Amino acid sequence: MKSYIKFLGTSAADFKLLRATDCADRFDKNARRASCMMIGESILIDCGMHVLDSIRIARIDTSKITDVFVTHFHADHFNREHLEAIAEGKPNPVRLWCRQDTAFESFKNVEIIRMEEGVYYHVSKDINAMSVYANHEDSAFPNHFLFNVNGKKVLYATDGAWMLARTHQILKKKNIDIYVADATCGDYEGDYRFAEHNSIPMLRLMIPSLKTAGIIHDNTQILLTHIAPSLHKPHDEIQSSVEADGMTVAYDGMIIEL
After folding, report:
1. Which of 75, 95, 192, 253 has its CA at 20 to 30 Å from residue 40's CA atom?
2. Rounded CA gap, 124 and 29, in Å?
3. pTM of this prediction?
4. Residues 21-34: pLDDT tens digits?
């Protein structure tokens, strides 16, 4: 059986253009929900304010979700009630994976696993996962995740700008196959969010350096997510502007086979 990733949400914390009345029961490339993604049927990355709607629209069987990875604890990426709703009634606790220094209370029917930086953890028969630190607000305990899925390496890297030196040291020569990159800001220069979020010009600068370091390779799929609707043009226009750079703009409901 082939593995896959499925984007359930691709927006940054900016939902002004989310036309809830127009797309309450469907995905729309120009009406993005809070960023989250599935790996197969059992692994959910982030569970923020829209996750239950996204799961419903995607017709995902929540009884099969065994693991939730949290990139950081801002409201668009983590919601306690939604996590507990996913975990409710399961015979075994849902495993919540987060950064090793994360501090919070316990949750109902949830086992908290604090991941040591740069160490692979066994998640399931075919999947291992690693936490690496992200360049984002420290109080939210930000990290990115590197997954090894049946030999394919997937880096989920949002929120966070550029790449920390310590993360570069861990990821160099990993030759990642799929790089899911933060692209909060649009195709312009001079945005004040540069210390915590990427823009398209920043990514254009990064990609050659990531290849030089062996973090990604010439055939790496580069997928952009965490798109702020008010800072970007419509989906098709963004895609047109990044195609020559070898990047693809992710959208809610998008599936990539591994």
Report:
1. 75
2. 32
3. 0.96
4. 567 788 989 889 99
